[in-house]
Amino acid sequence: MLGIHKEALRGWVRQAETDRGERDDRLTTAEREELKQLRKENAELRRANEILKAASAFFAAELDRPRTRPTR
Question: Residues of 40-57 as b/e, b for ≥16 C-beta within 10 angstroms?
């Protein structure tokens, strides 16, 4: 025996079949990598969006604040 659990080997074989186009019920390795990158990018964009929302609210509050004239 190879010292590998049979389910691990089975999974590797299924993934190799998918990568070769023999199966279409799973993501290929390239698709998995792309999905990983897209999820990472999506998370970064969500963080940037939250920062922009907070900055927008801050500056809107600054613009709405009544201005006082400095005393001389």
Answer: eeeeeeeeeeeeeeeeee
